[in-house]
Write a structure and sequence with these properties.
The radius of gyration is 13 Å and the shape is globular. The protein contains no helices and 5 strands. The protein has a 5-stranded mixed beta barrel with strand order 1-2-3-5-4. A hairpin with a 5-residue loop joins strand 4 and strand 5. By secondary structure, the chain is mostly beta strands. The protein has one domain: Beta Barrel (OB fold (Dihydrolipoamide Acetyltransferase, E2P)).
Length: 98
Amino acid sequence: MQIVENWAYLIGVILGVLPAPERAGFYEVHVRLEAVEKVEAFPMMVQAGPGEEIVVLVRAEQVPAPEAAKDKSFAARVRAAGPQPLTYFVAPDWTLQK
């Protein structure tokens, strides 16, 4: 399997935040996408578009108040990891604003 450094910029609205059942220390952030943008110099591997829901994994410390996240705006760089189905991870410098 080949590893490809990839990034996309996702913009949307948070539908909910749940503990990630298969990754301790992570949350699943469910986002309804409004836009998906290419990050210059990186391939874009996100397989979703505006109007679709996507699940992004984030470290627990990046979401200080998960119970208050619903309906907040989401805008972040995200990378895809395989194999299929792809798993999406938020950039390490992102934090949900209170």
